[in-house]
Design goal:
- The chain has 444 residues and is an all-alpha fold.
- It has one domain.
- Helices cover 85% and strands 0% of the residues.
- It contains 17 helices and no strands.
- Helix 1 packs parallel to helix 7, helix 2 runs parallel beside helix 10 and helix 10 packs parallel to helix 13.
Length: 444
């Protein structure tokens, strides 16, 4: 890892991670796209309202995946493979146990959850309830695939990490039009197709480890919560997942506040958020791809290489953010039109997207810096940064601006929160880097 040229090294590790996030993005958008082909805006609204449940599973997988990947990469950098195996096993067992428990709870309280997500009419409550209860069946597999796509990247197996996501994605894309349009199953059909895809992806990673193709081992004899295994994984994993958790919370809040403007407005903002995901998920992939190699540098105490990799990654992240924002702006009519045929809902989606895309060019820089904090093991700083963008800063801001400015204020809260959070994250990252480097130089 210390011998490859930096541009080649970063691109080799981040491009597969970015492609994996494209797979997640397609997963996330396929249901909405094919449901949109029915021409019924309420079905689009229902799938949009159900998205937070999918994000809950992703966030749980991120806890054990990003947390595990950070610990594993630093352990491998320090030459401690035995500890890395214990972390991998803990992440696997925790993913399964938590996934089963959460899935059961969602199935039992599906309709109550649908109401909390913002479903108002009996029709939307029924459709959202159906979707999330079916999706919950594949919950443990969603967590597993999210977890082990990150773990495989931590050991340097970036291509296999991408292949697992791709396998489930292909299955989902093939089955979506069959269940939704051909068989006329609509929203439940979308959920069934997505669940089957998730299960296939999860099974891919399980078989990969069972067949011994990984450099790491997952064995019950290595399972432990001692030696700070549990603590170290959760200390980084929880802050890393907070971005997704608060994304879920913020989406629920936006849907609830947007419902005052009508269900077509909810459909419009749901599509607008999907459009933002195009830039966001690519930038998330960049951050997740660069974290293990930064973590390896931290573990081997190679701070000069850490700084060089971080600098290149920030420039790469800025480039991705700019390119994807321009792409989304240029193709806004076509992208929004692919999901919505209702003229009023489309106009909402178009207008909302223009506002939310205004800070899209910053997303790559933000994700690299947040993952750099995780790579350095900066638990508190990572926690603060992840909690701010769509939590500590965003939540009060969205209520204040919605009350004072109405619909425009509700939407502009996100771009303002993006800028403020990025400034805070830069300050945190610089301070943590200086502190850790000075300590290592004193010990040297």
């Amino acid at each position: 890892m210390n011998e490859q040229s930096i541009p080649k090294f970063v691109l080799k590790n981040t491009i597969p991670a970015i492609l994996a996030m494209i797979m997640v993005l397609i997963y996330n958008m396929a249901d909405l796209f094919f449901v949109g082909q029915t021409g019924e805006a309420l079905q689009v609204t229902s799938v949009s309202l159900a998205t937070p449940v999918f994000l809950v599973f992703i966030s749980l997988g991120t806890i054990f995946g990003m947390g595990g990947a950070s610990v594993i990469s630093r352990a491998l950098g320090a030459g401690n493979k035995a500890y890395a195996n214990k972390v991998a096993t803990f992440s696997f067992v925790a993913s399964v146990v938590v996934g089963v428990v959460v899935s059961i709870l969602i199935c039992v309280f599906a309709e109550d959850i649908a109401v909390k997500l913002g479903a108002t009419s009996d029709t939307t409550v029924q459709m959202v309830g159906d979707y999330i209860s079916i999706l919950a069946i594949s919950g443990p597999f969603i967590i597993l695939q999210t977890c082990f796509s990150n773990v495989l990247r931590a050991e340097g197996n970036v291509q296999k990490a991408m292949m697992g996501m791709m396998a489930g994605n292909i299955v989902n894309i093939v089955l979506d039009p069959i269940f939704i349009l051909v068989l006329g199953m609509n929203v439940p059909g979308a959920a069934i197709a997505t669940s089957i895809g998730n299960i296939c992806s999860g099974l891919y990673y399980i078989l990969f480890f069972v067949k011994g193709k990984s450099n790491l081992s997952v064995s019950l004899k290595d399972f432990t919560v001692k030696e700070k295994v549990c603590r170290n994984v959760l200390a980084i994993g929880i802050p890393a997942s907070l971005g997704i958790i608060f994304t879920t919370v913020s989406q629920i809040i936006i849907n609830l506040l947007m419902s005052d403007y009508g269900e077509l407005a909810v459909a419009g903002v749901g599509v607008a958020m999907k459009i933002i995901l195009i830039s966001w998920m690519l930038c998330v992939g960049l951050g997740q791809g660069v974290q293990p190699i930064l973590g390896f540098c931290v573990g081997s105490k190679d701070w000069d290489r850490f700084r060089a990799i971080l600098k290149f990654s920030l420039l790469f992240g800025l480039a991705i953010g700019v390119v994807m924002t321009v792409f989304c702006y240029a193709g806004l009519t076509q992208i929004a039109g692919a999901f919505l045929t209702d003229e009023e809902a489309f106009s909402y989606a178009y207008y909302f997207s223009q506002i939310l895309l205004s800070t899209g060019f910053l997303l790559g820089v933000f994700n690299v810096l947040v993952n750099a904090l995780g790579a350095m093991g900066a638990e508190k700083a990572s926690l603060v940064s992840n909690a701010c963008r769509q939590g500590i800063i965003f939540v009060p801001l969205v209520f204040i601006m919605n009350y004072s400015m109405g619909l425009d204020g509700l939407l502009w809260a996100q771009p303002i929160s993006d800028v403020l959070t990025l400034i805070l994250t830069i300050i945190l990252c610089v301070n943590v880097y200086k502190t850790l480097r000075s300590k290592d130089e004193e010990l040297a």
